Input
Amino acid sequence: MPLVDSFLVRDGHAVAPRGHRDRMRAAAGELWGTEVDPSAIDDAVAALYEQAAHTLGGAPGLFFPKLTLEQRRGELRSEVNARPIAESRLETTAHLIAYPGRDERTRPRLKGPDFAWQERVRAWALERGASDPLLRARSARVSSAGKSDGTSHFLAPQIHYSETAYGSVALWSNGVLVTSSDSDRLPSITESVIVEIARERGHETLAAPLTKQRLLEADAVWLLSSLHGVREATVGLTDLPAPHVADTYAPPRGPFAPAARDFQDALWERAEPIRELSA
Output
């Protein structure tokens, strides 16, 4: 069960490379901490990112490296696959559709162990004209509403979404940047930087359930990932079986959202030399 990391490298620079390294270290501790000494995990993760720094730190051009860490009989093994890519592969827009099945990942907070299932559901979305499937939050949450006497009563559970198969979802509502409050998902490095940029620019940010209503009423929906950065997204939210699921794209509406391009530029203004990972 390998752990994997990938992030766009442009002319030896990447966005928040230390954040990626720290996430890998935490994931390795969670997955193998009872079988492998913590110092061995720290050394293996450091070596993996140093290898990436040496491989790509001085290389011109565009890369989307695959960094793999695997444990076999108590020994950690790592690999860096440079994977050069063309600029034309990078996208600025995306179409999302709701996956009607349940989230079958066994370790949603880790990147790598459930790639086989994620590939299947992304293939399902691609067949229906979408870029990525929206995944339902794994646990049903019951909402409550206040009554006039100050107590509360329960409402029916609402369907809400945690992330996509390969990305994080954020939306803008009346000038507020909203991200998923679901903790049972991959901690997104790109999302954390986007939230930081929004706060520095004076925007309010909020972590909340990404319900159908929030998505359909949003001024804009963004799909965030370490490859494409920020993509403006349209969303189809029917839960009917195919082919109807692809028929209800809801375009972003309303003026109360910054331009995705501005945040994409700000994202790359923070890029750091990955060579520093070997320091």
Summary: The chain is about 25% helix and 30% strand. Confidence is low (pLDDT under 50) at residues 142-156.
